[in-house]
Amino acid sequence: MKVNYKHRDDSKVRAKKHLGQHFLKDISIAERIVGGLSGHDGYKQVLEIGPGMGVLTQFLLKEPAYSTFVIEIDTESVAYLKAHYPELTPRILEGDFLKFDTKTVFDAPFAIIGNFPYNISSQIFFRALQIRDQIPEIVCMLQKEVAQRIASPPGNKDYGILSVLLQAFYDIDYLVSVPPGAFDPPPKVQSGVIRLRRNKVQSLACSEKLFFTVVKTAFNQRRKTLRNALKPIGEFPEHPLLTRRAEQLSVAEFVELTRMAEQVIAP
């Protein structure tokens, strides 16, 4: 059955700059974002980060395949959601996702969805990586430049730290671009929607902590060859990988580089 949705009255909640709030008002884009959830690995629960006035939430609540939870730090938005979606009230989590202990609410895998605040989107992904075994799928909107970077393959100038770290554990698709006019207030940048689906990698064949360090160090001086970029870690033996630049290496090659680093820093 086709349901007709109306725009919410955006005047109900004041967009707060310090929270990076830009409320999506394009209903067709909202429906498409929610439609990006594939049910990968059969999860039964979805957590929406920063629902605001519920433009995504209204579609999520119509999905019978899973139960929708939301987490919101803005008290004004929480009050709006309770007033307009009373059936959601028991599943409204008031607080900061970055500080939220997901195991206090979820005892099974759950998906994440949301129009991420652009000023903390990277932090959200780093937090998601920490609890990745709980999260089989993420569908989100963020700054287009960041979305493209995350989905970019090796050898592309957009390929960077988040690309490698997230692609190590997720298969990533870029879904759609979204213009500033789809928001109120409109951001000064273009936006993009991506989907991340957990791959089969349970653990890396190297120290994960050192892997993160090697990737970040390599990209900190991305114009240099890896031999020069990785000098803060130590002196590496001769190897063809070290003649290349960070953006040219695949995840598997970064794992190989990390195994070399383990030997370099071993006592």
Automatic annotation (TrEMBL):
One Pfam short name = RrnaAD
Query: Where is this protein chiefly located?
Result: cytoplasm
The protein's annotated catalytic reaction(s) are: adenosine(1518)/adenosine(1519) in 16S rRNA + 4 S-adenosyl-L-methionine = N(6)-dimethyladenosine(1518)/N(6)-dimethyladenosine(1519) in 16S rRNA + 4 S-adenosyl-L-homocysteine + 4 H(+)
> Where is the secretion signal located?
none
Which PROSITE patterns does this chain map to?
Answer: SAM_RNA_A_N6_MT (PS51689)
Instruction: Name the keywords, alphabetized.
Output: Cytoplasm, Methyltransferase, RNA-binding, rRNA processing, S-adenosyl-L-methionine, Transferase
Q: What is its EC number?
A: 2.1.1.182
Q: Check the record and name the SUPFAM superfamilies matching this protein.
A: S-adenosyl-L-methionine-dependent methyltransferases
Superkingdom of this protein's organism: Bacteria
- According to the entry, every stretch annotated as the Ribosomal RNA adenine methylase transferase N-terminal domain falls at 29-200
- Cellular localization per UniProt: Cytoplasm
Single GO MF annotation: 16S rRNA (adenine(1518)-N(6)/adenine(1519)-N(6))-dimethyltransferase activity
Q: Which InterPro entries match?
A: KsgA/Erm, rRNA_Ade_diMease-like_C, rRNA_Ade_methylase_Trfase_N, rRNA_adenine_dimethylase, SAM-dependent_MTases_sf
Which residues hold S-adenosyl-L-methionine?
A: H22, L24, G50, E72, D96, N115
Instruction: Return the similarity comment.
Output: Belongs to the class I-like SAM-binding methyltransferase superfamily. rRNA adenine N(6)-methyltransferase family. RsmA subfamily.
* HAMAP family reported for this sequence: 16SrRNA_methyltr_A
NCBIfam families reported for this sequence: ksgA (TIGR00755)
PANTHER family named among the record's database cross-references:
DIMETHYLADENOSINE TRANSFERASE (PTHR11727), DIMETHYLADENOSINE TRANSFERASE-RELATED (PTHR11727:SF7)
Protein function: Specifically dimethylates two adjacent adenosines (A1518 and A1519) in the loop of a conserved hairpin near the 3'-end of 16S rRNA in the 30S particle. May play a critical role in biogenesis of 30S subunits.
What is the protein's given name? Ribosomal RNA small subunit methyltransferase A
UniProt source species: Dyadobacter sandarakinus
